[in-house]
Amino acid sequence: MKEFKIESQASFILEVIKALKYNTSGIGLRIIYDIKIERLSYENCRITFIAKEGREINPRDFFYLGLDINR
To answer: For residues 50 and 57, what is the distance between their CA atoms, to the nearest angstrom?
Structure first.
């Protein structure tokens, strides 16, 4: 798998963005994946993680990011 997308309410995507900026697992994801953020409507956004050259999406990365967001 080369792409992983999360489409949700803007408030949830904002929490993901904060985790990418401040949490250790999020900072690691920024190194491993290219990240694209799109505003779909006033309420909804999409964040897409694209595996960099020679890499694959690892579901475990997103599990640990979710743990950080819930803290």
So the answer is: 8
- pTM for this entry: 0.86
E strand or H helix at 14, and its extent? Answer: helix 10-22
- What backbone torsions phi and psi does residue 42 show, to the nearest 5 degrees? -60, -35
Q: How far is CA 25 from CA 29, 35, 44, 46, 65, in A?
A: 6, 14, 24, 20, 6
User: Could you say which residues of the chain have pLDDT below 50?
Assistant: none
**Do 66 and 58 touch, CB atoms closer than 8 A?**
no
CA distance 51 to 56: 6
